[in-house]
Structures are given as C-alpha cells and as structure tokens.
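This part of the workshop introduces the protein records we will be handling. Backbone structure tokens are a discrete shorthand for how the chain folds in space. Once this layout is familiar, the rest of the handout is easier to follow. The record below serves as our worked example for the rest of this section.
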Amino acid sequence: MEPTTEPPAADPARAVAAAAFTETDLEALRRAKHQLETPPLGMKLAAIVGAPVEKLIARLPGVANDKVTDATQTALRKCLQLALKTLGKQGALSTAEPRASTKPSNLLHKFAVATTGAAGGAFGLFALPVELPVTTTLMFRSICDIARSEGENLASTDTQLQCLTVFGMGGRSAADDEADFGYFIVRGALAKAVSTASSEMATKGFAAHGSTALLKLMQTVAARFSVQVSEQVAAKSIPAIGAVLGAMVNTVFIDHFQQVAHGHFTVRRLERRYGEAAVHAAYDAIDVSLD
C-alpha cells in the first residue's frame, strides 16, 4: 500500500480571517492582490516597444538621470501643492462625502495622459521637464478619483497623502531594503513618513508645504517613482518613436498606477470593515498564481 501524502495544514488564523469575509469582499481582495502584485511596469512597456527596457535605459545619455530626477521631484511637488491648496475646499479634488458607488473616470484620465504622451513621443527627452509634471498631475487626479470610489474622503490629509504614496507603490527601487518584498512591506516602509507628514498638514495646511516631514515623504516616494519614470523615458527613447507609440507608452504608464491605486484603496476599504489584521491574514492566504 502506497503511503498517502497529507496536504499541508492550513493556518487556522488565516482560515478564520477568510471565513469572516463575504464572498464579494473576498473576491475584491483577491482582485486587489492581483493588482498590487502585478507584473513590473518594465515588462509591460517592453511588450509595447518590443525591446527590453533595461537595455534601453543603458543607452540613455548620462544627462538623462539628472533630467529624470529633477522632473520627478517637480512632478510630485505639483501633486503635493494640488493636495494642499484644495485641503478642506471644493476644488480640483472634490471634498464631498465619499460616493463609493460612483465609478472612477479611468478612461478619461487615460485619454488625457495619452495626449501628453504623444507630445513626449514627438520631442523625446527634451519634453520631459514639461510633460512629466502634467502627466503626473493627471495621474494624481485619477488616483484621487479611484480613492473616492473606494469610500475615501478626499478632504482628509491622510487620504491625500495616501494618493501621493501610490506613486511609491508602483514599483521597487533597487536602493530600498524592501525591494524584494510585497505590498504590505512597502506600505509599512512609507507609513511612518505618511503619519508624520499628515499630522503637519492637518495643523499647518499650506504652510506645511516646506516642512521637513513632507520633504522626507516626497523624497522617499520620488526615489521609488523615478525608477518607473526612467523606464517610461527609456521606452520613448527609441529613434523615431513618434506620437502614436508615445501615447501608447503613457497609456500603459497610467494604467499601471491605476491598477495599484485600485488595489491599495480596496485593501484600505476592507480594513475599515474587517480590521487590518484580518485583511492582512486573508491577503497572505490568497495565491494569485492560481488566478
């Protein structure tokens, strides 16, 4: 008689956590994990341009890194200014009560970003200082729209900073100790900086713009975001890429961060309902390789 192989015992805590979820919410969490553990942006861009992004990055001129760093910092500062200026006001970021049933305008934002990408494709690296701040601001609006659709209140300083940190969750920086870990590790690495900056924004408003806490948060997010910006720039560096392919690259770019935003704010919505520990345990129990 052949010995039978017993399946590994399930973690009781994870099983209880998953059992507490409705089927709809468990499916939402499964979808969120798939979005958050999505293939790297570089792989998506390589499929569009037909070449490994790493090789394209290596061909960029030496001045490209400085341009990317400067443009990234400028882009995130504009997003932060947008959040601060609209804090507690009706404006570019709606502060009305959250309407979780209203779907975000993902396609509209994609179209707008594709338009800026067409200009970037036509003028290449020279367009980066102008194009990236506009593109990133449009993406920030889209991320805020997604947050609102998941029940977040955009008048909240914490929500606005959570929207900003999505740019830091869209990939991994090789300089980070957390580079090889998943969503909760990356989110945890940003949590303290978000909390400190949120407290300053809540008490100082626009006067907090130059604070050390906000500067530190922005630098942390920028270090991560610049990796994806470099990949985007590299994808547009192919000679005679043209406006059409430039628009396609930007569409992939915003779609990547929209997926991350959907996943992140879905997790936060479920945490408000079930608690952080239960959601974390259920998230860990999901095997996205089986999807």
Remarks:
- Residues 1-10, 94-98, 173-180 have pLDDT under 50 and may be disordered.
- The radius of gyration is 20 Å.
- The CA atoms of residues 107 and 197 lie 31 Å apart.
- Residues 242-274 form the longest helix (33 residues).
